[in-house]
Write a structure and sequence with these properties.
mainly alpha; Helical scaffold and wing domains of SecA; 2 helices
């Protein structure tokens, strides 16, 4: 979640920078420079700047994170899958019709739940 938040913030900033560049790049034509090639060069430099600042910010953030030990020990028998798929008790020898209700108890048809191809 932390990585996605940082990436999202940096990407929004990058898009704003590209928008500002797009609005001002036309003035380079007065200096006898091709605005399209100038835009390509400047936008590539902005993207490289985005990648380097993203690496720096992620490194800084993860270096400050303190991992706390959990007070509840995790049982080895505990499943981490949530929802109806975690409670699968399928009959192994019976063929289930695709339109039959799913045996896991989700309320969906078998073809839309556990029998999805």
């Amino acid at each position: 979640m932390v990585l996605l938040r940082i990436l999202d913030d940096k990407w929004k900033e990058h898009i704003n920078n590209l928008e500002q560049l797009r609005q001002t790049i036309g003035l380079r034509g007065y200096g006898q420079r091709d605005p399209l090639s100038e835009y390509k060069n400047e936008s590539f430099a902005l993207f490289e700047n985005l990648l380097s600042s993203l690496k720096d910010d992620v490194t800084k953030t993860f270096s400050r994170i303190v991992i706390k030990e959990s007070t509840n020990p995790i049982n080895d028998n505990e499943d981490f899958v949530e929802g109806p798929i975690a409670n699968k008790n399928f009959p192994s020898k019976e063929k289930i019709s695709r339109n039959a209700p799913c045996p896991c108890g989700s309320g969906k048809k078998y073809k839309h739940c556990c029998g999805k191809i």
